[in-house]
Amino acid sequence: MRPPIIVVVTCGLALTATTAVASGPGSPDATKHLQPNAPRTITVSEADTPPVVRAGLLQSTLILLPDQEKVANVFAGDTVDWVFDGGHVASRFISIKPKVAGSTTDVHIVSDHGNEYTLQLREVSGDDDPHFDSKIFIAPGDKAAKDRLAELPVFVPAAELDKVKQEAAAAKAAQAATLKAEQTKEEAYRSQYPGSLHFDYTWDKSKGKELGLQAIWRDDRFTYLRGQFQETPALYEVKDKKPSLINFDFSNGLYTVPKELDNGYLAIGKQKVEFHRTQEAR
């Protein structure tokens, strides 16, 4: 698949005059008998003569590109006696309308996939056949053109490009704002965290030294015990004079207990160090 080549294309139809075909005078009375044909599909091939589209005086004929494509640009031979409208948003639709009876012109359509479609337009209000084309579906007749429908667009209309840029800028600004808020929150937490630490535990320092216990403290959510231990002691919480093993994380000599402990002890075999929160701190 070819990589997309971003080319800025203006919204609506950019009309460039080529060889205009002379138009004759028309009469509004000629529109009285005009009747729309049923929608039909025309196949466009570079090797064939451009197909003819029958247009009715002051009547709109809608031309539709394949579903996969949008109009990137339009070149018309006569932009005085014919009106071309692709809307203000890039789409697969083009509306054409002749203003002069008996006029003819050519129109060359370039799609966002790089396909090119050339049509001959003819106003038919003076014909014996009163029918004009109300809706035309275009189908590519060349294999290369059909293959391009499955590929990424090679042209991007300016409006869509601006929209993508705006969305990207908005997403970047939102991400920056979120990151700034998180950084502010983290900085505030760090600045306030030391004030939330409490070293209000007591224990027998000689027994603690023998076991390897060095410090015990807490914040508003956790209790921490640090030491240098030959082997990891079991940690117990004591409530109502009854000990129970509790859950904790241990890493590099640091116990992290997901709660505030009032009383407890560390034990290895017969070695035991009890610790208690001071009464003033409770």
Automatic annotation (TrEMBL):
Keyword terms, alphabetized: Signal
Coiled coil feature spans: none
Residues annotated as signal peptide: 1-22
Keyword Signal tagged: yes
Domain of life from the UniProt record: Bacteria
InterPro entries with a match to the protein in the record: Conjugal_tfr_TrbG/VirB9/CagX, VirB9/CagX/TrbG_C_sf
Pfam families according to UniProt: CagX (PF03524)
Stated name of the protein: Conjugal transfer protein
